[in-house]
């Protein structure tokens, strides 16, 4: 089937003498998750991982993906004729090196500019400048029979009761930022930013309550480009009252083309596709930077934070019910990772105003938990036994906001190593929770602080410590990031970020403890304006694996104090054995 | 006197209708310290601080300097007609804003390109593009009567016994780096890099045993441009045998001009002056980056490290003798900060192969220590009393290498605050000493780890945590830096770096504890190649102010273990009351 698709693609390529065709994993908005309609890379290769790019030449085809997907890709590419190129592994050529090697010096390279990020295109141009790059070729669209439609679900209004700010107020702030930067226009392509600004949400992408659309803001006009059939009367009226004009999704290209020369337009090259860029008059001046809405939406207001706290209580209640159910059922030897993840979904669904899960649940027992991005597959997932660790990383979208939580539970007896690693991960988690820092501290600087207790024991984990979390939007959002990669963004009050250190021992066990925290002001004095973190998540952290002698008095205090609050917050919503479970699991150590 | 100089400068400016003349604090090599010959900014303004730029227009004159020098500059600028512009203070115009405001739109701005860093010039060009910028105007040279000569002291050979590598070996490595980068030539303007590469040292700049020179390296030829009269026969022979040709200092311009078009030259824009840049043919291609020698010299080899350890023992012996002497003399009320700094110099001089101090000693009692860059002035410095803290930050150049050390001593009774702050600074210091980290950790990521114990108490200090230290070269060297400023340079084995957290309470007291450490390999395992630090400095850390209850068991262990080693290393070189002092000050707590 895949071979047949590649053959048809090559026929198309041959017609126009194209030497290499690039199929990225991307939609016109550079979304993290894609609607089925945009899964072109999956269509052409059969590979279902979230990250990967396919390049097809007349006699070769390759998939480039990262370490998370090596095993999966190897399996899924079997007998497709597509070679796997393992990114980050020594001596594996990059896509650009491959194209340079496999195509003639002035060969034609083609791609579909409507789904290709402008930023990546610039890199191609820089390296492949001498080759001809065509950006208007949508061959997958041409060969894809029964391609899923672009979703047409109705949009809903996200009321001021939840957002705290109307669109007109947000536009006012955005325009003052544009004025400061000297920008006449701001194009916005990323769906989370548009939904944030317009106070709308939808169901166009699984796990992401966003709406496929573009926005173009000038000092006078704010246009939302969207399939009008999706927009109910109520939303139309709201937007009109807030100074927003609705236009058809594809009208963006016309409107961009009409921007008068010498105007200044602000765009985010990482969140703009090539066709958008090409639609703009060549004598319009560009300012490139992060979408100005990114920082606005990262700093949650009081109303948003209040709702988020509710969402986390609902989440806490669901998880306590789930843990109680799980621990009762596990000794029967009948529960699989996949099945229990489904049950967790059920418990969440009981929460008021639950909308959907915020990402695919990581439900991993024993050695499977050593794969930080493991996802159980129906019918093939492991059975949970009454020893070792079970790790669950999951989250929900509620009308009250988005949650994300990881807990690692002792299902029975643990090895000394398991206890030791669990205690160190907990120390790292608490280290960040206790860390106050002066305003001006870059978010990445908090990463090394968290890892310190692990580094001292010559342990580490191979993912970031913390990501921003959207508000009924993507569970991963910037601009802050607590990771080893230098990040120039200050951690600021109102930012909502995860704290999720871990330890992963291949073939044995995996541990991660994740809370979501909000950055708050602590004290301003002559040394600085000190900020710190406060948890939003209140869910028991398993104390059974803790080696108490490894914790400092402050760490023990933090843990006991945290559990006291967990009990206070969740106990009103639990009864019977679920209440008992909460009580037992929040006892002092 | 200053007024007269400014008047004469303005006469010169009027002749050529120059609207603004810029006098930076710089020499042709962008050295941190300047030979007297290059102190043009001091000559024109009377301001003696190490950092500052003067701009003179026909009716205004200004000095721009940073917070360290506000008080000193205010005093020194009195009655000069030069206004002080406090950098970093709100609403104070930058130099560029001042020029934009004070000169006509197409006015002429001039400077002496021979001492102006190319990097700063690029910024000027970017912002003042519309103005005419002349870069060949040396007016200070023209009006400066009795200008000190460029130093003519003899160069000496730094033997392989000390450097561990001959110049020919270093050239081989450098050329392989050039080849990798695709560079045909590497121009080197920074004196430390040249001295490192050529294995020579000299006496051209106080506190910096460097030699005024340029170097130009190609695949075939290595040229050293220097006042030939300074180079003894022995050095000439050594360099010739190592493939280096000696040329006259000024010949660099001719040689640069002769580089054939389409060649590729590698330069460091921060360490290259404007005239050098302009001397190069316009169709030569540039690669810009840090001098390639910078990383080579930052990673000390085994021979260098062995010698450095010796140097620190000599330094430790000198400091113990000094502390013993100081504590005996202080109660007499006769010792001033300035006088004791002189005595410390005497104690250092007793060390074998001592060359000179590596920077001006910071000798500060009581509230003076709250100024991190305080320097006592003869006849005006404070008297040391038998209470509170005395802080001394000093270092030496020995043939065995360069030292730098800060200790804060209890001179008698201390307040609770003093003890509390001292203990926290010690905790921060130990935090970094105990920190292991995987290879790939950026040097700046270690900064937040060090500050963590202070941040938790809502305290902080307003300088970097650690700087690289040269090997019989500048006491401050890159490329690594442990500071709040993001630094992309990995901390690597062999790097020698300071660890110097502090707390400064204005009007009351100042504390800093500084050791020099070498980065070493600890353990390679599945989680990474773990590195850590080992002290090079072995000098007692005053334990009298320590609030033991604030230290963790690991911190107490570190301190006791450190003092055990201090005793082992220094005791063979001390006798009588000096031995007793060492014994007492290295007791376990």
User: What is the straight-line distance between the termini of chain A?
Assistant: 58 Å
Oligomer: homodimer
Overall average pLDDT of chain A: 95
Extended strand count of chain A: 28
Q: Count the helices of chain A. How many?
A: 19
- Beta-strand level of the residues of chain A, as a percent range? 15-25%
With strands numbered from the N-terminus, the spatial order across the biggest sheet of chain A is: 4-3-2-1-5-6
CA-atom Rg of chain A in angstroms: 25 Å
Computed structural class of chain A = alpha+beta
Outline of chain A: globular
What's the main sheet of chain A like?
A: 6 strands, mixed
Q: Biggest interface in this structure?
A: A-B, 34 and 34 residues
Low-confidence stretches of chain A: none
Helix content of chain A: 25-40%
Question: Can you walk through the features of this model?
Answer:
2 copies of one chain form a homodimer. The first copy, chain A, is α+β, with helices and mostly antiparallel strands and 589 residues long. Chain A is built from 19 helices and 28 strands. In chain A, the strands form 8 sheets. Chain A has a 6-stranded mixed beta sheet with strand order 4-3-2-1-5-6, with helices on both faces. A 6-stranded mixed beta sheet of chain A has the order 12-11-10-8-13-14, with helices on both faces. Chain A has a 4-stranded antiparallel beta sheet with strand order 21-28-27-24. In chain A, β2 and β3 form a beta hairpin. In chain A, α14 crosses α15 (337-349), α14 (302-329) crosses α19 and α16 (416-433) runs antiparallel to α17 (445-455). The longest helix of chain A has 28 residues, at 302-329. The N and C termini of chain A lie far apart (58 Å). At the A-B interface, β21, α17 and β27 of A face β21, α17 and β27 of B.
